[in-house]
Structures are given as structure tokens and as C-alpha cells.
């Protein structure tokens, strides 16, 4: 029986990187399914939440859900949060939706550049456990999620705050100490 070297290399890399985090592989897989489940339920709950009048970003980390983006009315923000909390597997919700018109494509491109820059800066800083921190940027606001110690969270926040283009930092860490 021959084994595909690419499959073996991918498995080895996955196990190696999985060991760099204090989340189980099961939690990581659950999060990968949780994001689209929450997004789908929100979209189905109200036409305005799936139309171009709203821009909703759903992020999951260890069962914690972040709703970021924009929606034009406060009741839509509230409804999105209520729907998200009812999805099986959601442990906690951070509803950070802004009651605004959706951000432009230019702003979203800029957010993607900021996120890439921040991930690179965190990777270069040995005090920051970059493999355990998820960075989401929406409309210039940076959200940090992860399982970290308070010192690691402070280091990550310091790196992020010093970067250009960051308007605000919102820490949504789960602390392990």
C-alpha cells in the first residue's frame, strides 16, 4: 500500500501547528462549521440582514462568536445577535455590529491589509503567541480573539495599537490565567 506524500505532509503540518495552540483539533473543526452556520441563520432570519444594506462578518474562536460589520437599523443588530445565540455550539456572543451603512469595498480592502500587517507584526514578536490569536479588522476597528494569558494579551494589544491604520482595538480574549 503506497501513501501519498502530500497527504502525509499535510497531516504532519496540521498536527504540528495544532500542537502550537491550546485549542483541540475538535474545537478548531467546530469553529469552522460554526461560522457558516451562524451566518446562514442570520441571513435566513431577515431579508435586510442578507441584502446589500447589511455587511455582517461572523467569526468563531473556541465557540465564541464575534459579529462585526454594519447594519442600517438597531433592531437588525439586535435580531442578528439573538439568532446567533440560538445556534448550537455558540458559547458566548460579542455583538459588535455598528448601526451604519455598509463599509465600502475600499474600506474592506484596507481592513484586509491592516489584518495582514498585524499578523506579520505579531508573528515577528516573540512575546505574542500569534498562532493562538485571531485578528479581525472591520471598518478600521481591530478585534482580537484567542486563548491567551493576560501577559500575552497585553503584548498582542501593544503590537496592534502601535500599528498605523488601527482606529480602535477591541480585546475579546479568553484568559487562561
TrEMBL record:
Keyword terms, alphabetized: Signal
Matching SMART domains: BON
Gene3D superfamilies xrefs: 3.30.1340.30
Domain spans labelled BON: 30-101, 110-177
Superkingdom of this protein's organism: Bacteria
Name of protein: BON domain-containing protein
Amino acid at each position: 500500500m503506497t501513501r501519498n506524500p502530500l497527504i502525509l505532509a499535510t497531516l504532519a503540518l496540521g498536527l504540528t501547528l495544532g500542537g502550537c495552540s491550546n485549542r483541540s483539533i475538535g474545537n478548531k473543526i467546530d469553529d469552522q462549521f460554526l461560522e457558516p452556520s451562524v451566518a446562514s441563520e442570520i441571513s435566513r432570519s431577515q431579508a435586510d440582514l442578507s441584502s446589500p444594506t447589511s455587511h455582517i462578518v461572523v467569526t468563531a474562536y473556541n465557540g465564541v462568536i464575534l459579529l462585526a460589520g454594519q447594519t442600517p437599523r438597531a433592531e437588525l443588530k439586535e435580531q442578528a445577535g439573538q439568532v446567533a445565540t440560538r445556534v448550537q455550539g455558540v458559547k458566548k456572543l460579542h455583538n459588535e455590529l455598528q448601526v451604519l451603512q455598509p463599509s465600502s469595498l475600499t474600506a474592506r480592502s484596507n481592513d484586509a491589509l491592516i489584518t495582514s500587517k498585524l499578523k506579520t507584526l505579531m508573528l515577528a514578536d516573540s512575546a505574542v503567541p500569534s498562532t493562538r490569536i485571531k485578528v479581525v479588522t472591520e471598518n478600521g476597528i481591530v478585534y482580537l480573539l484567542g486563548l491567551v494569558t493576560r501577559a500575552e494579551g497585553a503584548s498582542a494589544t501593544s503590537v496592534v495599537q502601535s500599528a498605523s491604520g488601527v482606529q480602535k482595538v477591541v480585546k475579546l480574549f479568553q484568559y487562561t490565567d
